Amino acid sequence: MEGLQEKLKGLSVAQRTHPGESIYLLHAAQNPADLLAVSCSNFTIHLHNKDSLKLLGEYQVHKGPLCGLTFAHTSPNLLYSGSADGTVRLWDARRPGTDAVQVFRSDPSHSYCSFDLNCSDMLLCAGTEQVNGEDSFLVFWDSRKTGDGLLGVYSESHSDDVTQVCFHPRDKDRLASGSTDGLVNVFDLSRGAEDEALLVTCNSNSSAGTVCWAGADFSQLLCLSHDEGLHLWDVGRLETDEPLTIFSCSNARSLTTLADGGGLDYLVGSQWLEEAQALLVVGGRSNGDLHLLDCSSGGLRLMRSLEGGHTTTVRCFLWDAGREALITGGEDGQLLLWKPGGKQLIMRKQHLTKSNSALKMKSRPHKKHVYQREKRT
Known about the structure:
This protein has helices at residues 2-9, 194-197, 356-359; strands spanning 11-17, 25-30, 35-40, 45-49, 55-59, 66-71, 78-83, 87-92, 102-104, 112-117, 123-128, 138-142, 150-154, 162-167, 174-179, 183-188, 198-203, 208-214, 220-225, 230-234, 245-249, 266-273, 278-284, 290-296, 299-306, 314-320, 325-330, 335-340. By secondary structure, it is mainly β. The strands form seven sheets. The chain has a four-stranded antiparallel sheet with strand order 1-28-27-26. A four-stranded antiparallel sheet has the order 2-3-4-5, with no helix packed on it. A hairpin with a 3-residue loop joins strand 7 and strand 8. This is WD repeat-containing protein 89.
């Protein structure tokens, strides 16, 4: 952990993209080589070089907000994107600007708000928004099949928008899902039917935002809620009498005191850093300052604050272990590369403005619900 903290202490801005138009940068994905993909609030996907941040090209086919991006694990030139337009699309990252290689759809009423690809690159899953005020679905496809490759759906495990689906990094059949109904579910898809596949339901006591696998054997789950709650569970304890909850807090903003005596305004997300054996949580302030935190059974511990980069809310980040670099994107339209010994490029805030269309792209509000399952944790 000390080694990671030393690496973070040396970070400063090495590269910066200057926004050509007022858009938000929402999601980011990287492949093992030199490609970075970023989704934007104008429904486009930008491809960048990870070292220079040079724009290499873009895709402009989606008709609704994007809900995520991921590169294939075994074929790093294949890029998947999911959208509220009811499609998951496969792109050849070597040919930016071309049509999708494959398009995955389900029922016309389905609008996707999350998706993921399993570690074998054989199975796709998307989570839908609530349909007709009643149901939400987990939709599955065989990614190897031409056509839509639709395998089926799970329909009983969530009652509202499925905000996150996240496959286990090593087990191709293990899937976690989170929803605005407050539930985080873990499935073993090898068991087939939905009731048999559902292994455990954890309750976040709020609208679940993001879910992240963590821990030395990836047996832990971190959930960040839409009202900045934080819940860390160990689902490897299912066959024991030990409690699943490692740490839980309804308002993680209050856990960390910053240099000015204040706290965080929001949580950006989390990432398990396998090389450092650390769970990184990134929080922010409304002025664009970022705060890098270590999450463990003891809660959150501040490792480094990054100032002078963004000028408003940050929406996505990635840690590149090979380059020991942090990549961040936000509502100021900027994409930043933070590296040890960076040039500390500072942009004055008055140079950045937002359009009315960009301002409409903030996360839509989520309702709180009466939770329908008995709390397991």
